[in-house]
Amino acid sequence: MSGITPANPAVATLEPRSSLPDPMRRDLRGPRVSSASRAKAMLTSQAGSVVAILIAVVWTLPTAGLLISSVRPEGEIRTSGWWTFFTDPSFTMANYETVLFGRASTGQLSNFFMNSLTITVPATLIPLVVATMAAYAFSVLRWKGRDTVFVIVFALQIVPLQMALIPLLRIFSGTALAEAFPFLPIWVAHSSFGLPLAIFLLHNFMSEIPRELIEAARVDGAGHVTVFFRVMLPLMVPAIASFAIFQFLWVWNDLLVGLTFSGGNNAIQPLTARLSEMAGSRGQDWHLLTSGAFVSMIVPLVVFFSLQRYFVKGLLAGSVKG
Questions:
Q1: pTM score over 0.85
Q2: Per residue in 82-124, pLDDT tens?
């Protein structure tokens, strides 16, 4: 039996690469590199490292100049730039002595330092406690209107703090409660405007926790209180620490709320309010701000570095494998 003769007896040749289908042409070119991979390769290259170092130097340079100015004599601060310290070095701690021990008319800076701690610690703990429980209610509990209420809470983040200062001041001013707890209006202002963001962040983190953990605990007879304290809280430590750092820094560096509710009373004024007055009525003592700035940076640096490992974990929240 003779073989079947092809319709075209010409010798078969390979088609050129341009005539191949699109998928085959992509395979011949090799795997496609995503934009994220290209960006990662660019950022981790030597050129990217050099650019990052330059940015870090430029970002740190003003802080270095502030530190050098804080240990220079007043006369040299007023007459020359901080970079002249390297050619004609002169060192003094008079600025820090004036800032820390103060004058008889203004009081010691340590009193304002303690006022800032009294304001910042409760204003950080209150929204964390409330937001953690609210995040559990929004992510675990099932109740009517839950999504609508969560959207309203999320939308409250766009309300500026300045809009509520006068209403809060009118509510608390002249009341026996404000006289008994003078820091209460400041706590309420910072806590109420920190709550929407705290609830949003903690809710997103808690929603990524596998539901199987909660179901297993409920099968073992655990109630919502047990699930909250024994299952959720240990897993939420990174997210709680991350928001605690942000809230602490925001409240510690706040000036507007402290000035509004303190009313010029040195007994409750925060450190930032005292630093703003340190330059004097005519700016004659502005050189003291250099040392005062570094005194105010001590506590935030301690808080950040002590919670840094939790902060890094909190930034990676949401990467739970199913």
A1: no
A2: 888 888 888 888 878 877 776 544 456 778 888 889 999 999 9
Check if the beta carbon of residue 102 is closer than 8 Å to that of residue 108: yes
Q: What gap in Å lies between CA 23 and CA 108, rounded to an integer?
A: 75
3-state secondary structure 45-90: CHHHHHHHHHHHHHHHHHHHHHHHHHCCCHHHHHHCCHHHHCCCCC
In a domain, 184, yes or no: yes
* Cβ atoms 199, 127 nearer than 8 A: no
β-pair partners for 107: 103
119 lies in the same domain as 81 = no
Confidence of residue 50 (pLDDT cuts 50, 70, 90): confident
What would the two tokens of residue 229 be? 């304290």
For 214-227, the pLDDT digits (tens) are 888 888 888 888 88
- CA contacts within 13 A on the Cβ side of 34: 3
Kindly tell me the burial class for residue 154, based on how many C-beta atoms sit within 10 Å of its own C-beta (0-12, 13-18, 19 or more).
middle
Number of domains making up the chain: 2
> Considering only CA atoms, which of 28, 27, 189 is closest in space to residue 123?
189
pLDDT at residue 250 is higher than 50 = yes
168 and 238 share a domain?
Answer: yes
List, in sequence order, the alpha helices (H) in the chain: 22-29, 35-43, 46-70, 74-79, 94-101, 109-139, 146-155, 162-172, 176-180, 184-207, 211-219, 224-226, 233-235, 237-252, 256-262, 271-277, 288-296, 298-306, 308-315
Whichever domain contains 251, its CATH number is: 1.10.3720.10
Give the domain range for residue 47: 36-92
